[in-house]
Amino acid sequence: MTDKIHTGGCQCGAVRYRATGEIGFPHLCHCRMCQKAAGNYFMPLGGVKWEDFAFTRGEPAWFQSSKTVRRGFCEKCGTPLFYDGSSDHISITLGSLDDPQNVKPQLQTNLARKVSWFGELDHLQHDAEMDMTPDQERAVAESTRQHPDHDTDAWPPEEKP
């Protein structure tokens, strides 16, 4: 049996990583500390043993968010990447995976801090006039500085004269 390989990294590509095997305990954490660290209503996380994890480009900066937890992020673009609770594994922010669709959260934690209207989000109206047109999507794709969702030999690419 071949182990599953998960790759990911930050928005700018300065920090990249690889995790081998299944990502365990995929969940949405609603604690206030995760909300602040993500700048969002929750943080999606999943863990992998340190022995099955490696940085493939750069290394994150770390913020000691409590006595027992440090959080890794890209110092250049600010992307939140990791939660390290001083154990045998590191938790990865699931949105930083190259293919986040492959790891579905299986539960939620710290529901006491979950925003009260969170369950209503799926019922928000969709304003199609705010969607990007194909021309707008193309213009963004042609000028993006966001790292692609796969490993690259070098990043950023050299600017064309």
Summarize the structure.
The chain has 161 residues and is mainly beta.
Cα-based radius of gyration, to the nearest Å: 17 Å
- Beta-strand content estimate: 25-35%
Spatial order of strands in the largest sheet = 6-7-8-9-4-3-10
Poorly predicted tracts of residues:
none
CATH class of the domain at 5-115: Mainly Beta
SSE order, one letter for each helix or strand: EEEHEEEEEEEH
- Number of alpha- plus pi-helical segments: 2
CATH topology of the domain at 5-115: Metal Binding Protein, Guanine Nucleotide Exchange Factor, Chain A
Span of the ends, CA to CA: 47 Å
Estimate the global geometry from the Cα principal axes.
globular
Reported CATH architecture of the domain at 5-115 = Beta Complex
Structural features:
161 residues, mainly beta, Metal Binding Protein, Guanine Nucleotide Exchange Factor, Chain A, three-stranded antiparallel sheet, 10 strands, 11% helix, 30% strand
Structural features, described:
The strands form two sheets. Strands 6-7-8-9-4-3-10 form a seven-stranded mixed beta sheet. A three-stranded antiparallel beta sheet has the order 1-2-5, with no helix packed on it. The model has no long low-confidence stretch (mean pLDDT 93). The chain has a domain at 5-115: Beta Complex (Metal Binding Protein, Guanine Nucleotide Exchange Factor, Chain A). Strand 6 (61-64) and strand 7 (70-73) form a beta hairpin. The protein is mainly beta. The chain has helices at 32-38, 134-143; strands spanning 5-9, 16-20, 24-29, 43-49, 53-57, 61-64, 70-73, 80-84, 89-93, 107-109. It has two helices and ten strands; from the N terminus they run βββαβββββββα.
